[in-house]
Amino acid sequence: MLSLVLLPSPSLRQKSKDITLPLTPEQQTFVDEMFIAMQTYDGVGLAAPQVGSNINIIVINTEESPTAYINPVIKKYSWRKEKMEEGCLSVPGVYGSVKRSITITVEYYDRQGNFINEVLTGYLARVFQHEVDHLNGVLFIDRTKEITKGQDELDKMLSKK
Ligand code: CO
């Protein structure tokens, strides 16, 4: 089982790298392991740096099925935003409200190597933005103006060096 990288690990703050397509058999296995980790740790999404690999892969438990997004990029953000509470497997026990665009236009490759351009909205758009942040070394605690739960846990984690 892939283990979770937790705050304040410096690797969560690194910028991840694009991967070359098509995925190697090892990378396909890694995606499967990310699905398993997401399910086991009960996350709605997971980014590769959270399981120890600074490469541009995220997985999201969409309404249909667990989906992998390779080299994901957000091309457009809607002007309309909404605030919602978020948490993160790498920052356990901590929640905060984050303002994010309601609709985004994204580009990525699926795990078969097909290039996809699509518009995402609502909850999926939110999770996608959260996970892509991870690839840029950004965490939701950087974006929240209001920790709604777990301030003590957060202070404890941040005081660890
Ligand atoms: Co997260």
How would you explain this protein's 3D organization?
The protein is an alpha+beta fold. It has four helices and eight strands. The mean pLDDT is 97.
A few lines on this structure:
By secondary structure, this protein is α+β, with helices and mostly antiparallel strands. 27% of the residues lie in helices and 32% in strands. Cobalt (II) ion binds at residues 88-90, 130, 134.
Question: Can you give keywords for this protein?
Answer:
single chain; 4 helices; alpha+beta; globular; binds cobalt (II) ion; five-stranded antiparallel sheet; 161 residues; 8 strands; three-stranded antiparallel sheet
Radius of gyration in whole Å, from Cα?
15 Å
Quantity of strands, as a count: 8
| Mean of pLDDT | 97
Q: N-to-C SSE series?
A: HEEEEEEEHHEH
Shape: globular
Strand order across the largest sheet: 1-2-3-6-7
Find the structural class using helix and strand composition: alpha+beta
**Biggest pleated sheet:** 5 strands, antiparallel
N- and C-termini, Cα separation: 26 Å
* Helix content, binned percent: 25-40%
Strand content: 25-35%
Instruction: Enumerate the distinct ligands.
Output: cobalt (II) ion
Give the low-confidence spans. none
Q: Please tally the helical runs, counting DSSP H or I stretches of 4 or more residues.
A: 4
